[in-house]
Amino acid sequence: MITKTLMRAMDGRAFLVVAILLAIAVFVPASNLYLPTGHPLRVPDHFVPLLGKYLTYAMLALALDLVWGFCGILSLGHGAFFALGGYAMGMYLMRQIGDRGVYANPVLPDFMVFLNYDELPWFWHGFDMFWFAALMVVLVPGLLAFVFGWLAFRSRVTGVYLSIITQAMTYALMLAFFRNDMGFGGNNGLTDFKDILGAPLQAGTTRAALFAASAVALTVSFIVCAAIVRSKLGKVLVAVRDAESRTRFLGYRVEGYKLFAFTASAVIAGIAGALYVPQVGIINPGEFAPANSIEIVVWAAVGGRGTLVGPMIGAVLVNAGKSWFTGVWPEFWLFALGGLFVAVTLFLPRGIVGTIAGGWAALKARRASAHAEEGVDESTTTSRLEPSPAE
Fold first, then answer.
1. Can you tell me the distance from the alpha carbon of 330 to that of 43, in angstroms, rounded to the nearest whole number?
2. What is the pTM of this model?
3. Which of 90, 93, 126, 208 has its CA 20 to 30 A from that of 15?
4. What is the bridge-based pairing of β-strands 195-196 and 190-191?
């Protein structure tokens, strides 16, 4: 049943996207590991985790597009789900350090020893096991989104009011995680990771494996989102986006549809955060900053919301530009980002992919119209040349 639903969602363009992502998942690690240094096709060591970070951002933008582009929920708090998934993975990585830390405590992470913790907090238990951490990566963001969404959608909070309270949620979490007594490392967060599943994080094979895992996770997320938006459920989500009151009047329980999309989106964002942390090497409360969530919206808008592919492209392009700008003109990056958003809003309101798709559809329509007119003219000419039965 699930397999049939997923395959039904895969048209020619979706298959092309999946093929490209899987090709990237193979080419980048193989290029880095097997091609000699100096080869023109070799991806340098420092580029592998950087590209992997871009893929996790693409996954995060895809998660936002599911709720904003197809359900009309402008969330300004998706950075919170991303950060929670990252913290769950960071807690696992911290437990793997053991007695190799600065204070050589086999149980307590270094920051807990420094802050004079007597014992490991209860919510840290179980994170020494990968399966438990992976479960929390999915469960914690999903549960928060479910509870938050159930309260908000049940109260029929919509529009800008919903956007504001999602931003308030992530800001409140940022303030909470900044506190040292919360047990998450305070301002410094979690860092100094050593290995994952017994493999050193600094090893080239580990970096390549994490990149491949990010590409595969992005591929699976794209397939799942495509299956959702192209199903009957997806049609209802679009109806909610375009005319929520009318959809409710037709008998649909709008709150349930919105809650499903919001929760599924949060789970995808949490997985993206979990893949982000081992490649970057740190997770701190700054990931909860409202500005980060607003930046995710910019990625989706630049690429083209409501297209699935657009937000992924937008996330990669904007962050690649950010890496270049912050290296060349770091003081102008925020101006460039703001100018990009204004330019897209004014000149490309449908984003890059949306504008290209719209232009291509218009071109095909004009060609079809021209062919139809030619056919009408030919048939008219032919009928005039043929004698009538009376003649």
1. 25
2. 0.90
3. 208
4. unpaired
Averaged confidence pLDDT in the chain: 89
Instruction: Decide: 49 and 38 in contact? Cβ < 8 Å.
Output: no
Tokens representing 149?
Answer: 């969404």
Q: How many whole angstroms separate alpha carbon 82 and alpha carbon 276?
A: 9
Closest among 218, 239, 76, 80 to 161, alpha carbons compared: 76
Q: Give Rg (Cα) of the chain.
A: 25
3-state secondary structure of 76: coil
CB 94 within 8 A of CB 133: no
pLDDT of residue 209: 96
Measured CA to CA, the distance from residue 181 to residue 222 in angstroms comes to 39
CA distance 134 to 122: 18
Residue (of 286, 246, 252, 287) closest to 270 by Cα position = 287
Question: Could you tell me the two tokens for 388?
Answer: 């009538």
Compute φ and ψ for 252, nearest 5 degrees.
-80, 140
Please give the Cα distance from 138 to 149 (Å, whole number): 16
Contact 75, 148 (CB under 8 A): no
Say if residues 319 and 365 touch (Cβ distance below 8 Å): no
pLDDT tens profile 187-207:
999 999 999 999 999 999 999
Show the DSSP H helices in 42-99 as ranges: 47-68, 78-95
Closest C-alpha among 156, 150, 306 to residue 244: 156
Place of tokens 């097997």: 34
Specify the 3-state DSSP secondary structure of 383. helix
End-to-end CA distance of the chain, in Å? 64
Q: Give CA separation, 278 vs 53, 91, 189, in Å.
A: 10, 11, 14
Main-chain dihedrals φ then ψ at residue 231, nearest 5 degrees: -95, 180
User: Which residue type occupies 53?
Assistant: K
Alpha-carbon span 285 to 191, nearest angstrom: 12
Of 57, 91, 109, nearest to 297 (Cα)? Answer: 57
Backbone angles phi, psi at 378, to 5 degrees: -65, -45
Residues with Cβ within 8 Å of 389's Cβ and at least 6 positions away in sequence, in order, are none
Q: What is the pLDDT of residue 5?
A: 60
3-state secondary structure of 230: coil
